[in-house]
Design brief:
Blueprint lengths: L1 H21 L1 H11 L1 E3 L8 E3 L7 H6 L2 H28 L2 H4 L2 H13 L2 H10 L3 H10 L6 H53 L5 H51 L2 H12 L1
Antiparallel strand pairs: 1-2
Helix pairs in contact: 1-4, 1-10, 4-9, 4-10, 6-7, 7-8, 8-9, 8-10, 9-10
Length: 268
Amino acid sequence: MKLRKLLLATALLSGLVAAPLASVPVLAQDQDAGGDLVATEGGGAPVQTTKKGNSGFLGVIFGSGALGVILWTALFVDGAIAIYFIVDCFVLIKPEKIMPASLIANVEAAMAEGDVMKALSSCENEPGPMANILQAGFSHVEEGFDVIQEAVTAAADLETERIMQRLTWISVCSNLGPMLGLLGTVQGMIMCFSSLATGAPDVGSLALSIGQALWTTAGGLCVAIPSITFFYSLRNNANRLILRMTAQTMELIKGLRNVEVVGDEEQA
């Protein structure tokens, strides 16, 4: 079921990125088929003339020059990286990976017996964020409960930062998309005004420059909108799991108070 949701999310993101781009050939063919209306002498009816131009998505890309090709390549790479980290976070940020039930059960059983070494061994056998936090606390069991709490808090902050760093890359990709699109828009407008500066501009070239400017903006937004949506969804899920993990960890290390007291009595 979760794999099906993951595939559905990936397909949705890919579709949102590819749908506007796939419509470029259709729009180009409609423009080529439409032609221009030319008025005839003597007030006759306008005659429609056809004019061939660059059609298809490749025409939009390569018609914008070397900088346009670089910008479109950067947009595709940005979208691919966003998809990779979204899938990666869907796989890793879930309860089974962060706080497995088997680890919690084993640690609870070991703490019920007062066997700290057994609990530490359980953490080593099932590595993960929660296991690393518990392992940091169990490693300082002889130094007092205050030191244990400090070690657990430091380890929890470290694991939280590791989780959030993965999510940050999705946010970076969502911010880069509109910026790359805006740069493509500026380049297209520069080409447009350069055509106007030469005198009587070619209407077809002028329209192509404006179209290239708008399509780069659309491409950037197609990367940014799904990416920012998945970012906030995954971040909220990660925050809920981190809070649950922190509460569960503090519940488990409460038993270390008794272990410390028993140690003091034995020394006395």
